[in-house]
Each structure stands twice: as C-alpha cells, then as structure tokens.
Amino acid sequence: MNHDTALGLSAGIADRLAHPDTAPATVSTDTVRQHLALGPIGIALLHIERAAAGLGPWQRAHDWLAAATRRPFASGADSHPFYGAPALAHVLACAAEGLPGAYARDLALLDRQVLDDVQRRLDAAHRRIDTGQLPVLAEFDAIRGLTGFGGYLLRRDPAGPALRSVLDYCVRLTEPITHEGDTLPGWWTLTGPSGRPDDRFPGGHGNSGMAHGIGSVLALLALCARRGTTVSGHRQALRTILAWLDRWETTSSQDRTWPYWVIRDELRTDRLAPAGPRRPSWCYGTAGVARAQQLAALALGDPARRAVAENALLDALTDPEQLWATTDFGLCHGFAGLAHLTVRTAADAAPETANRLRAVLPDLLATLLPLGSKPKDAGAALVDGPGGAGLLDGAAGIGLGLLAASGTAPPRTNWDAFLLVA
User: Fold this and answer.
1) Tell me: the pLDDT tens digits for 160-183?
2) DSSP-assigned states of every residue in 15-82
3) Which of 268, 290, 321, 416 is deepest in the core (most CB within 10 A)?
4) b or e along 309-326 (b: 16 or more beta carbons within 10 Å of the residue's beta carbon)?
5) 3-state secondary structure (DSSP) of residue 92
6) Residue range 305-341, pLDDT digits in tens
7) DSSP of 166-235
8) Whole-number mean pLDDT of the chain?
C-alpha cells in the first residue's frame, strides 16, 4: 500500500464518521458515550489528528465532542484513563495541541479532577504496599491504572509533583513481595489477566503486556527518563523490569519473543509451559514489549539492548506464524497497531534497522485493503465491519494508525500517548 492509498483509506473512515447523526448507532449509545476505546470521544480523536495535519475540518471534531458532552462525565472512583473525565481530558489535550487555546477552561477543570484522582489512587496503592498485599491490575495498568494517568501527566505537567509521585509508586511496584512462601515481583496479581478470579491461573500471574502488565510501567519509566523526569531508584526499577523480561524471553533461530504472562507454576519451576505462536500486538506480545524495551535502552544508554529490541520487532513482523496469529485490523491487537508501532520504533532505531522496519510497512498496510477495493470505499466498510467504529479495536484507530504509517509526517498531536509508545 502506498502513501496515497493509505491516506485514502483513512479519509474513507473519516468521511463515514463525519458526523454523529450519520454514524453507526453503536458509537452514540449512553453505554459507550464516555469510553475512549469505543465511543464518540475516540472518534473525535481521529478528526482532531486529521484536522491538525490539514487533512480535514475541525468542525467534525467539535461535533463529536459536543455529542459526547451533552451530559456530564464521570470522575473519581468511577473513572479511569479510558473512561470518564480522564479519557475526555486526553482528547481535549490533543485538540489543544492542534488548535492552541481550544477548550482551555474545560481542560483546567479536568486537570484538577485528574490530579485529585491520581492522589487518591496513590494513597490507596501505598497503603496496599505497606501492608504487604499484592496489587490488582487496575491499580497500575495503562487502561485503568496509574501508568495510564502517568502518560497523561507526562504531557500536561512533565516536571510536576504529581508525575514524580506516580514514578515513586512505579519504583515501589518493582520491589519484590513474599506471598505464601514465594518471592514474587511486586506487580504479581492473584487474578487472571481479566482482573477477575480465574481457575486457570491458580496463584495468579505476572503480566508482561503493555495494556495490563509491567510493560506499561517500563514504558512510562523510560519515557519520563528520556524527557528528564526521574526519581530515586528510577534506573534500578528499569533494570529490574528488564531483568524479569530477560529471564522469560524465548529465543530461537528465527526470533525472540516474550510471554503474555507468567503463572505461579512456571515461576516455581523457572520454565514456561509450551505455547504456540502468538500475535505480536501492542496490548500483549512481542511488538509492545519490544517498543518498551527500546525506549528503556535509549533511556539507559544501552545500544546492545536497543538492537535486540529493534530486531525482535523486525523478526515478529516478518515471521509468518506470528502474523498468521494476527487476525484483526485494530490498534490494540491488529495490523494497524503493528504498523503504528513500527513507525514509532523506526523513528528511534539505528539507521539500517529503521530502513528495514519501514520496508515491511506496505505489506502490513496491505492487509487492510481487500484486493480490488477503492480506498475510500474500503474505509467506509471498515466502520461497518466486525471491528466497529471505535478507537482501540475499530475503524477510528485504524484511521489514526494509517496517518503515521503513510509516511507523511509524525503525529501532529500526542494522540497515541494513551498507548505509552511515544
């Protein structure tokens, strides 16, 4: 897929989602109204980035935001980075980046709500650590937890005390905890990956992913270090997480991968159970973990680890078995997400590896366009397809991923800050 085709496909998605009144009804229901992943504010993000890049009108973004905010947004315990006031804050912050001065009063109010929520969550997390209890995933993960909030604070107030407090918490999270005779990493949880009790995970698990696991903590610590915001123990925390990933990596003559998670029996035997090829996505798997490790290597000045991370992503993108395990198109665990991660990784990669990474983009993007289809028609079809219109799994996210992958320019706003990849 070439530059013009990618832009045409993105435009077809945006045109099908031009106005809330003509969009699929599923994105306007009250159930998803406040949800970044599924609802109208995620679609607004597509129009914000396109408008900031000069590819579409700002009115489309305003219309979607107006439709979403006709009623108040949840805050406090009923919200998180993907739902309610914090999710809206991310979208409005992107709008303000592309249209300076826009939504200033609303953003100031949302920032205060986010700061209050972060402090409440930090207090609860430190109380939990002080009593020697294990965390739940929602305490720290990118979707519902403190690393997701940290990504927002890094944009809004990178030198502020709130972000430093989140980083202090991340450092404490990497300290080991003894539970039922086992020494566990501080991010070990007693639930399954869903965050609920699960008989398939007796004794819980240690999650490696970017969406719900320690990958997000690694990425946040690395991003902050690269921008000059560090706290006591920051570098050691990076090294502790990297050592955990090194312990559980699997290498072969073809590639290097990391597991989605480690369960209690695997921890006790120091051996992963056999598993077939898994998709190398943002949320779980090699692609997201490789980007987090590349960021950490850049923060630590470790060229050898950087090369390992970059080549692991390249291997994943050219491994037929891993690509066959990738069965959808979205940002979270599909081809648009792989394309976007490839662009972000290539931008920081060694020159030769960067060129090789960019060379695989046409094949990744070609999966999004059925043979013989017109780009704009295919874009509209994606909105009405099984992935839906939303940001994380659906067409709005595909439209955003296509913009950077088309080769025009880096993102004009920090729309992908919620992914903790840049």
Assistant:
1) 999 999 999 999 999 999 998 999
2) HHTS-GGGS-GGGSSTTTTTBTTTSHHHHHHHHHHHHHTTSS-HHHHHHHHHHHTTSPPP-GGG-BTT
3) 290
4) bbbbbbbbbbbeebbebb
5) helix
6) 999 999 999 999 999 999 999 989 999 999 999 999 9
7) HHHHHHHHTS-EEETTEEE-TT-BSS-TTSS--TTSTT-EEE--TTTSHHHHHHHHHHHHHTT---TTHH
8) 95
- Residue 273 structure tokens: 């159970």
> 3-state SS of 231-267?
CCCHHHHHHHHHHHHHHHCEECCCCEECCCEEEHHHH
Residue pointed to by tokens 């990784």: 345
User: 21: which 2 tokens?
Assistant: 């009144």
Token digits of residue 1: 């897929």
Q: Distance between the two ends of the chain, CA-based, in angstroms?
A: 25
pLDDT score recorded for residue 408: 60
In the structure encoding, which two tokens stand for residue 358, read together?
């960019």
Dist. CA 326–CA 334, nearest whole Å: 6
- Please list the alpha-helical segments (H only) found in 227-371: 234-248, 264-269, 286-300, 303-317, 320-324, 335-347, 351-359, 361-366
Which position has the token pair 């090789």?
356
- Residue 1, SS3 per DSSP: coil
Candidates 111, 140, 109, 148; CA nearest to 124 is: 140
Q: Which two tokens stand for residue 45?
A: 């993000």
| DSSP-assigned beta bridge partners for residue 261 | 207
Tokens of 380: 């509209």
Give me the numbers of helices (H) and strands (E) for the chain, helices first please.
19, 6
**Tell me: the pLDDT tens digits for 70-114?**
999 999 999 999 999 999 999 999 999 999 999 999 999 999 999
Would you state the structure tokens that stand for residue 210, as one six-digit string? 């970017």
What value does the mean pLDDT take over residues 106-129?
Answer: 98
Residues 6+ apart with CB under 8 A from 26: 32, 388, 389
Angle between helices 286-300 and 303-317 (to 10 degrees): 160
* Residue 83: DSSP 8-state: B
Residue in the block written with tokens 């060694």: 350
Among 287, 301, 394, CA closest to 343: 287
For residue 40, give both structure tokens. 């109208």
Instruction: Give residue 31's pLDDT.
Output: 86
Residue type, 275: A
With CA atoms as reference, report the closest residue to 307 among 316, 298, 319: 298
- Please report where in the chains the tokens 């639930």 appear, as a residue: 191
